[in-house]
Amino acid sequence: MRKTFRRVTATAVVLVLVAALAPGTAYAVVPTVPTGLTAVAGNESVVLTWTASSNTPTDYIIEYSADGFVLTSNRFMDGTSTTLSATVTGLTNGTQYTFRVKGTNGSGTSDASVTTTGVPYSNHTPNDLAVFDACPTSVVPAAGFTDTSSLDVDCVKYYGITKGTTATTFSPIDFVSRWQMALFLTRMVVPAGATLPSGVDQGFTDISGKSTEIQTAVNQIKQLGITVGKTATTFAPDDFVTREEMALFMSRLLKASQTGPGGNEEYLAGTSGAKEIKSLDVDHNFSDLGTVTLMETQNAIISLWNLGVTEVIAATLYQPNVNISRLNMAQMMARALDHTNARPAGLNLQGSAYSGTSSIEVTVSVTHRTADFLPVTGSLVDSFKYQHTTTVGYSRFSLDGSCAQTVATVVAVNSCYIDATDRATDSNGNIATFVEVVTASTWDIYAWTAATGTFYDNDLHGGDVGKITVISS
Hints:
Blueprint: H1 2-21, E1 35-42, E2 45-51, E3 59-65, E4 74-75, E5 85-89, E6 97-105, E7 108-109, E8 116-118, H2 151-158, H3 178-189, H4 212-223, H5 243-256, E9 265-267, E10 275-277, H6 295-307, H7 326-337, E11 346-351, E12 355-356, E13 359-369, E14 380-387, E15 408-409, E16 423-424, E17 430-439, E18 442-449, H8 458-461, E19 466-472
Parallel strand pairs: 12-19
Antiparallel strand pairs: 1-2, 2-5, 3-4, 3-6, 6-7, 6-8, 9-10, 11-13, 13-17, 14-15, 14-16, 14-18, 18-19
Helix pairs in contact: 2-7, 3-4, 5-6
């Protein structure tokens, strides 16, 4: 009897050892819970990464839910893998998903990891950005407000679009009333290259209590087609401007403006005829435009996004029904100005790029404006460039201010001299853009204007000359 018991016991031990050691059959311990789960959202997808389980997992089970695992749980079928990342695809943009991961092997499956969330979104990029700036930072001064350092606020202050709530404050988080917006829009019109209409009464019965300046501005934006009012006879001047209303105002103003150098324009209709500032691209990243009822408003938001005008470029929410802040208003106006004919006072020179590697093709724009930002027509423009050098004793200009060294001609007949046949600014105050190639060095490109037959004198013309520096490494 004892011998039989020993034989049975020995056999059992052998079977247990075989089961424990046979590959692909079973493991001694269930994997530990995966840790460090993170999610990075993409277009209709989310990339998950995590830290490995212990105890030799042979696979990771990935689960996701659109309701936080309250009612639903889906498994992402990615095959068998011990890779510590996975891209979960087939998701709906704008929907928040909750994710969790489990480690598994032949001995069992771990508990789920701590969850993480991600919201897939369309990751398009704007396709019709302006090439040049209405407010280059090298030219436009700081507005002097103590409650914001926004360059866009500097821009709208420079063009006289805003005066601030006081001489030293802008109040960036305050909302914008409709009567204030009427003033901002009319002050933007002239620099943008449009003409202000008369401001004759447009039939709004609820603006009589406002100042003459405000009443005129409201009537002018109605004449320009920028507003149609809240109704045919009311403007609601004290209501706050919503973000969808801001989009309509900006889109309609751009269509009434003159396209500036590097601004994007499309045909009004079809493939020929007149053009206006807008984008026809339908890509965007917003998931909340379904709350917008007017198709014109949806199109305006999408067009402005592609033009780079909306201050929310990478976000998935436009928040059309939210009141717009003064800061966001300034941001959208400044970026809209880039597409228009608004350019700084004086002779201004800009490049499409200022640095790069190898050979850079820089598109150059030269504009001329009065102190009131009106186009200066017929200005003869000479342009030249100098290469940076470390040569001892080198000087670009002689003691009398004239060009001392050999200069490279850019757009000119004779560099450092105004010829009668030099390019002249057109009726919009611009000369045609030109391309300058910069290779493996640093160059300063100059543009200046004067009367025919004038030689460049840095002592006389240096204060008004336009100059950019382009670095090619």
